[in-house]
Amino acid sequence: MSTHVETHESGCLKDDCFAVRCDITALKNLKKIENEGDDDDAPARGVVPVPPSDLTQHLSNILWNKRGTDVAIDVGGEETFEAHRWILARSPVFEAELLAAKKKDKSPSSSLRRIEIQGVEPKVFKAMLHYMYTDSLQTDDVAMAQGLLAAAHRFKLERLRVICEEKLCKHIDLDTVVGTLAVAQKHDCRALRAACVEFITRPGNLKELMKTEDFVDKIRVNCPSVLWEILMKQVAA
Predict the structure, then answer these.
(1) BTB domain: which residues (predicted)?
(2) What is the pTM of this model?
(3) Is 46 or 201 the better-scoring residue by pLDDT?
């Protein structure tokens, strides 16, 4: 059967005419859409690299270049650091000290106000001062972290205290655990204290520590309650 006959019999032809219905979608301003990238009024699409913030570096330079310092801090009569009151006020202890010194000091306002600090090593204080300006701490030295934790506790720098506690938790070994445990006990660092006790009671560690003649004496003097914990853990093991 021919296509013409088939089409005629299908009923689609009427008076030899074939109707076709089409839906057409018209896009307005098609040329403008296509050329949008070339539009002079369109915003530029270039990539501009933004450098990282260098605020901490600037603050560090301000500290060590002694620009605009208004406080002199004598640390143990060994070393003097110059700083800025607006930074030192991060510590509630320093803030109170500076307010008290301001009331007592009758010298011209342009002169440095002097503060004396005892019981902190100069190198530890220097590292703490650097943290107060830059909010960063770059040391993996255990002795330094122990000293900084004590200083942070004393001057109520809570974030610094937690940073030091976290660093010390990662550096517990046979040589450092006793000293770190003493610091944790004294400054109520519960996570650090628990980590030290857990390390001491591991199989083999207690045996090695007991070989050192002053281990028990140090624990008894600095952390007497830990001896009972160690005993209970050994009994339960």
Answers:
(1) 69-141
(2) 0.71
(3) 201
